[in-house]
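Per reviewer request, we include the raw input and output of the structure prediction for the construct analysed in the revised manuscript.
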Amino acid sequence: MHLWRTVLLCFLLLAGEGYGGPRLVGWGAAHPDPERGMQRAAEVGFKELYLNYGSGDTFRQQVEAGQRHGVAVYGIVSPTQSSLGKLWKARFPEVPFPEQVLTPEQESAARLIAAGENRTPYQWGGEPLLEHEVLLYPIVCPNNPQARRLLKERVAEILSTPGVAGVALDGFGYRNFFRCHCEGCVNGLARFAAERPELQGPEAEVAYFRDVLVGWINELAAHARACRADARTSIHIWPAFMPEPLYGNRLDVDACGQTAAWYTLWPQEKIARYSRIIMGEAKRYHSRPEGVAMLGYYNKPGVFPEKDAARVEMELRTLLENGCHEIQVCGTRDVVEKTEIAAIFRRIFATPQPPK
């Protein structure tokens, strides 16, 4: 079995025509020195980087540096308050940010988590372990029409940057990993359930909030293509949607990243099983998407579980052996700046340079 795995991994790494080797893309903060940052990312093997848009000038510098080093840059679009809040306040100064509404129990849990309690098993938007666990970052309600328009404006603004490859969607989900409890969502669910009497109560609730989420994302992806026909669309499914954790194949995007190895230490069997589903069912609903496995790695001891080099190599090997030929990593700078981790990625993903 070990020999078979070794042979398969070598095939994946060395295969040429029709495969081209595994591809590495990364999420993360831009390096303060665009030239140096892109050079180091390219040396490790990154082909695409997903970066916060922030200031237009700074983002443009990152795009230009990426072009010089063969790294395509995407602008991140997120419905979180940290990303959209400033734009919302400028456009609607008298209107509170339309964040999702939690139950009283979930609000209480959020206060405990924010105060530093119950953090050990906290999953930061991944599949939760705690009762009433919620994501701490406020996210707009997907049924808010003003927020949806602002996100479309952000997509158009990013795609107007010369040389940018596309947009990367992140943070599209529910803070409680299931639904929003605002008045608009409650009324929307009631209308949906009345129109779909064949669905029982819990089934209607799951279907409605899943379909709202899917429709929200697909609308933005279609808008990106309408803004620029060659624009690429990518996503990482986060926060998790617990009734259907691997719902990403319902999304009409170019690259659908779904978590196969979280920041916490998932069992190898789960990593393998999720990898097979991500790749095997990528085109179940749409012909466009390519399945992408997301691997979480942060070098932040004391905040996230520590993954040593052997653990990271096992996770990467498991993803590759189970069919994942494109892998997203977050965060990029943690990989690049940790010498022993960078060496693993370089060995697997970096393209050998021809002799001069």
